Amino acid sequence: MNGFVQRMNQGIVYRTVEPIQSAIDQWLASHWWVNFLVHHPLVLLGVVLLIIFLVSGALRAISRTSESLWILVLKLPFRLLSWLGIRSFVWWRKSQRNETGDRLQELLTRLETLREEQDAILAEVKTLVQDKPQNQSLAKRLRNVPKLPGVPAQTQPGQPGANPTPGVLLPPEHSSSCS
């Protein structure tokens, strides 16, 4: 009885597998490149990696295009307003100019303070040097101390070269030979 059951099982398996096997063999015969890839796994691996990289690049290109499209859509109202000649944020530009003017005034005031401090220190050093005769070499060096650039020398109001507005520095005057 064992032989009969075994032959029946083999017959059932053969009748079930044979049509599937013949269909696969026919398909592989008509698609020779699939058969080649099945028998050469390294080439198959290379083709799979190539396909992965190509799909990845295509997805990246689609995402960049989508991103640039969204940026264009978001910038479009502003470009339309500028095309129509409407200047937005005028108040912001004015406040920016005021900040620049305030900063310039602050720097000029600081320069004036530094000049006054330099003059006070130089006057104190001169009195100390003049009191002692052994400091003659220091007195010579003191005459060569440079003034702050761009800062006019102290003058009394009403004198030529006097600053008409105290606290605001004027640019140095150019000689007529420079013109």
Structure in a nutshell:
It is built from five helices and no strands.
Portion of residues in helices? Answer: over 70%
Average pLDDT, all residues: 77
Nearest-angstrom radius of gyration?
A: 46 Å
Q: Can you tell me the number of structural domains?
A: 2
In whole angstroms, the N-to-C terminal distance is 127 Å
Number of helical stretches of at least 4 residues: 5
Structural class comes to mainly alpha
* H-E order: HHHHH
* Largest sheet descriptor: none
Q: How many strands in all?
A: 0
Low-confidence stretches: 154-158, 173-179
Name the assembly state: single chain
- Principal-axes geometry comes out as elongated
Beta-strand percentage?
A: under 5%
Write the layout of secondary structure elements.
Elements (H helix, E strand, L loop, with lengths): L1 H29 L1 H8 L1 H44 L5 H42 L4 H8 L36
Helix pairs in contact: 4-5
